[in-house]
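Need tokens for this chain, all 150 residues.
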Amino acid sequence: MESLTQTRNSQIANRLSMGVEWVNEKFSPVFDKAVQQTINNLTIHPASNESVKLPFTDDHPEVRADLEAQMLELVNQERVQRGLSPLKADPEMTEVARAHSKDMFARGYFAHFTPEGKSPFDRMDAAHVQYTTAGENLALAHSLPLHIMG
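Here are the structure tokens for all 150 residues:
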């Protein structure tokens, strides 16, 4: 596991990832429909009971707070473009989200609902998170740009 972490964090892996991102950016307009149907750009629609079986499992996924922050930035860019106010990270919700992500990786599924049928709201309630309104965004993609750490 340590060698996998070293590989993910290596400068060579980051440079290769950036190359893949460049190719993806250049070819996505041409192959957009086909790419959207692959695991590389997978989303589950809100309030959907869709579930996708992942072709892998991972019992010890690494938490990447830096990528979580980048994803929140991307979500907020979209919200602002649509006239909505930006969201702020919430520590309690982050823990609920991370637990669900770990469960999906460990059991090889991708969905708003667990295999037992528990919804995002069931998970928030079980964690005693207080909320007035809430929602869940799921995305599994390699499209977050990776930057070389100095």
